[in-house]
């Protein structure tokens, strides 16, 4: 692959990403390149700077230094809403489901939001029903077709997470960022959501923070390991899991 082609293949990149808090450096000079069409995991022990780095990439925090580019465009100074309009969608931005609304209605709200600055709550049911076909397609995509008429609050935890992913998909992300998608799940739900993430990644790029190493090993094309706010290693799971520094800092510490 030529240098130009390789550059075009990078959908999200960071150079020298740094965040200081009152003298404490939480993220220090992180370089990151997420390849288009891949599942890229950001991992590391507790206190490694994963969440801070994720918040910087999604612009919930402004970096103290460094640059972030999406599709070659500098987005360092943009707001979360502005990068969302470009197609960078973080799941938790709309992941709080409306418990008394149905699964279909929750996804429909996300579709309504995509139209502009208003959720269109004031519009008639007849007008809003025009979104139903698209909403049902998103619901079916995450395996919730049988629950379309169920109230979101009655879903199991794993199915609520699937619904959150459906509302994220409704915003048509080019790059989907998932913050610990398996957190708090039992083994059955982990297997279900892992299969869902693999399925929806077929024509999307996913960057995720995840503690469950078996999930990371199963899903990730590439992994960046952070420790003490810096990149410790990067590569495939086989490469990073065999790195002595990673074993000492992460696996040896007993974190998952």
CATH architecture label of the largest domain: 3-Layer(aba) Sandwich
How many helices in DSSP terms? 11
End-to-end separation in angstroms reads 35 Å
Average residue-wise pLDDT? 86
- Tell me the CATH topology of the largest domain: Rossmann fold
Secondary-structure element string: HEEEHEEHEHHHHEHEHEEHH
Helix amount: 25-40%
- Overall outline: globular
Describe the biggest sheet? 6 strands, mixed
The helix-and-strand class reads alpha/beta
Low-confidence stretches: 117-122
Question: What number of domains?
Answer: 2
Strands, count: 10
Strand content: 15-25%
Q: C-alpha Rg, in Å?
A: 19 Å
Q: What is the highest CATH level, the class of the largest domain?
A: Alpha Beta
Strand order of the largest sheet: 6-7-8-3-9-10
CATH superfamily of the largest domain: P-loop containing nucleotide triphosphate hydrolases
Describe this protein's structure.
By secondary structure, this protein is α/β, with parallel strands linked by helices. It has 2 domains: 1-87 and 175-256, P-loop containing nucleotide triphosphate hydrolases (Rossmann fold, 3-Layer(aba) Sandwich), CATH 3.40.50; 94-172, no CATH class. It is 37% helix and 24% strand. The protein has 11 helices and 10 strands. It has helices at 3-8, 50-57, 80-86, 103-114, 125-128, 132-141, 157-169, 187-200, 213-219, 237-241, 244-251, and strands at 10-21, 24-35, 39-43, 65-70, 73-74, 88-90, 175-179, 205-209, 222-227, 230-235. The strands form 2 sheets. The chain has a 6-stranded mixed sheet with strand order 6-7-8-3-9-10, sandwiched between helices. Strands 2-1-4-5 form a 4-stranded antiparallel sheet. α4 packs across α6 (132-141) and α7 (157-169) packs parallel to α8. The longest helix has 14 residues, at 187-200. The radius of gyration is 19 Å and the shape is globular. The model is unreliable at 117-122 (pLDDT under 50).
